[in-house]
Amino acid sequence: MLSLAMIVRNEAERLERCLASVAGFVDAMVVVDTGSDDGTPEIAAACGAIVHHLDWPGDFAPARNHALDLVTGDWVLVLDADEWLRPEAHAPLRALMEQPRVLLVNLLRQEIGAAQSPYSSVSRLFRRHPGIRWSRRYHAMVDDSVATLLGQEPDWQVVTCPEPALVHEGYRPELVAQRDKAARLRTAMEAELAARPGDPYACAKLGALEVSQGQRRRGIALLEEGLARAGADALAERYELLLHLAIARAPDEPAAAVALYRQALALPLDGRISLGARLNLGALLLRQGDLEEAAALTGAVTDLCPELPLAWFNLGLIERQRGRLLEAISAYRRALNLSPEHADAQRNLAAALLLAGDIAGARNGFRRAIALLEAQGEPQQARELAHRAGALVRLDA
To answer: Which of 171, 198, 228 marks a domain boundary?
Structure first.
C-alpha cells in the first residue's frame, strides 16, 4: 500500500493538479493543513484526501514528520502542492517498490523555469520505517536519517528512478519573487549553520545565494568550507558545491572555474543532474576559443534536455563562431520555439540570416528583436539595435 503525505497552506490554486496526478497511483492521501484561509482543506477533501490540521510549528521538518506519523501505507510518497507526478513514471516506480530490499527511491524532478539546472534529485519515495524521519530547516529531507539507518541495517538499498518522476514549478522566476524564497532561504540556512557549523548542505545553499547576490567573498568561503567537509559519497552536495564555486570563480579565475566544472562532471551522477556544469563549461570554453569541446558539451546538453532554450541559444553562438551558419540558424530557431520572447536569440538569428543572404528574414528578425526589447522595458537597447541593424539592412522596407 502506498500513501501520499503532504503539508499545505493556502495552495488552492495548485493543489487539485497535484492530487489529480497521483489518482490511481497512491492508495491513500493524507494532507496536513497548517492554517489555510483560501479553501485548501476543502479542495483536498473533495479530491479524496484525509485532511488533518496542525498549527504551523515554525519549521518544515516537524510538520512533515507529523504528516508521516499519520500515514499507514507500506510506502510513502511526499509531494508539495507546486509539484505533480508524471504518468510515465508510474510503472517504473511500481517496479522499484516491488524490490524487497529497496528502502528509498530518489526521484528526478523537472524544474520548470530553471534556466541552467532543469533537473534535480529529491528523496521523496520511501518505505514507512520507524528510522526514517525528516530533518533540516526549510529544505527538510530524510537523507540524514536514511544514512544513519543504512549504517545500522546495511542490507537496505537506495536507488534512483531513471524516468523523470516529478515536475516542479516552484522555481519559476515570478513565483520565487512572489514567495520571497531567497530571504526565507537565507534565514533558514543561517540558522542551520549556527546549529551545524560547516554543514556542507547549508554551505552550498547559502554560499550559492551569497554569490548570486554579489557577496562573492563570503560565498566562496562558504562553498570552500562545505566542499572541505563534504564526504566523498555525498555526491549531490559535492556537485552543488563545485558548480557554484566554479560560477563564483569564473569572472576572475576562468582556469580555476574550468577545473572545478570538470571535477563536478567527473562525479558519477545522472547526466540530467549535471547539465548546469556541462552548459556553463561549454559557455566558458566558447569565450576561451575552445570551440570543439564547447560544441560537444553543449550538444550533449541539447541531447539530454532538448526542452532547455538556453542550451540551444548557446549552441547557436558556438556554431556561429565555428562558421556553421545553417547549424547556428537551426539552433537559434529551436531556442525561439521554446522561448519566443528571447530577444538575444531573435537578434542573433537575424544576424545569422543576414550573413546567410536571407535579407527578408534578417529584416523581420531584427524588427522582432527590437519589438521584444521595447516590450521588455529595454528602450535604450532597442534604439541601439535599430541603429546598428539599420546600417546593415533597411528596416522600413
So the answer is: 171
